[in-house]
């Protein structure tokens, strides 16, 4: 695996959080693994991983889901990057994003963490914010609900109908980012849906 990428889905561990908005990054990783007929295995870096390929003969990809809570995701991500010898510019973090409407995907490299504690911790652990992010929109809560409570709730009934499409589109965005680069992925996935 000369050309390797580390793709990380952020979330919280355990069944209590499995289908919550905060765990949409891990749902995307589950989709990427399922497309390849792979299952996650325990890794010594306190994460679950799949070692596979983007496609036969293509770049190697390490799919990873930290076993830690969101706010302390950085340790496992930095440990995996070191273990596999992957530089930060080959790390892709898939995470939920409050400031993007539900059913929307945005991609970027670097920049601030936008108040996302998981992204903040990964940037601190990697000692740089210069890694790719696939930001999966979950939207903000209506009314005065605390966003911290909102992200830990399961998706609503209407959202659940579209969730498989959103997760599939985010998985497509990850694959295109690795295969064709940021600009091509942005041009496709930032366009309004028809």
TrEMBL record:
Major localisation: cytoplasm
**What broad class of enzyme is this?**
hydrolase
Q: Note the site residues: Stabilizes the basic form of H active site to accept a proton.
A: 96
Catalysed reaction(s)?
Answer: an N-acyl-L-alpha-aminoacyl-tRNA + H2O = an N-acyl-L-amino acid + a tRNA + H(+)
Positions binding tRNA in this chain are: 17, 69, 71, 117
> PROSITE patterns from the xrefs?
PEPT_TRNA_HYDROL_1, PEPT_TRNA_HYDROL_2
Active-site residues (renumbered): 22
The record's subcellular location field reads: Cytoplasm
Under Enzyme Commission nomenclature, its number is 3.1.1.29
**Site (Discriminates between blocked and unblocked aminoacyl-tRNA): residue numbering on this chain:** 12
InterPro entries, A to Z: Pept_tRNA_hydro (IPR001328), Pept_tRNA_hydro_CS (IPR018171), Pept_tRNA_hydro_sf (IPR036416)
Q: Which domain of life is it from?
A: Bacteria
Under Pfam families, the record lists: Pept_tRNA_hydro
Q: Which GO terms describe its molecular function?
A: hydrolase activity
Give the record's keywords alphabetically.
Cytoplasm, Hydrolase, RNA-binding, tRNA-binding
Q: Which CDD domains match?
A: PTH
As for what it does, the entry says: Catalyzes the release of premature peptidyl moieties from peptidyl-tRNA molecules trapped in stalled 50S ribosomal subunits, and thus maintains levels of free tRNAs and 50S ribosomes. Hydrolyzes ribosome-free peptidyl-tRNAs (with 1 or more amino acids incorporated), which drop off the ribosome during protein synthesis, or as a result of ribosome stalling.
HAMAP family for the chain = Pept_tRNA_hydro_bact
Protein family according to the UniProt entry: Belongs to the PTH family.
Listed under subunit, the entry gives: Monomer.
Name of the protein this chain belongs to = Peptidyl-tRNA hydrolase
**Organism whose genome encodes this protein:** Microbacterium lacus
* Lineage per the UniProt record: Bacteria, Bacillati, Actinomycetota, Actinomycetes, Micrococcales
């Amino acid at each position: 695996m000369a050309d390797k990428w580390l793709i990380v889905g952020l979330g919280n561990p355990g069944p209590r959080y499995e289908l919550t908005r905060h765990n949409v990054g891990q749902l995307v990783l589950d989709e990427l693994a399922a497309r390849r007929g792979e299952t996650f295995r325990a890794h010594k870096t306190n994460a679950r991983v799949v070692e596979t390929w983007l496609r036969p003969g293509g770049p190697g990809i390490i799919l990873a889901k930290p076993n830690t809570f969101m706010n302390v995701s950085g340790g496992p991500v930095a440990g995996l990057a070191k273990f596999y010898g992957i530089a930060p510019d080959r790390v892709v973090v898939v995470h939920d994003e409050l400031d993007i409407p539900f059913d929307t995907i945005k991609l970027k490299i670097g920049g601030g963490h936008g108040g996302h504690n998981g992204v903040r911790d990964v940037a601190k652990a990697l000692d740089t914010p210069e890694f790719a992010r696939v930001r999966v929109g979950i939207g903000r809560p209506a009314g005065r609900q605390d966003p911290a409570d909102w992200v830990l709730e399961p998706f609503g009934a209407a959202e659940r109908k579209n969730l498989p499409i959103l997760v599939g589109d985010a998985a497509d965005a990850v694959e295109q980012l690795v295969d064709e680069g940021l600009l091509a992925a942005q041009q496709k996935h930032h366009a309004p849906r028809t």
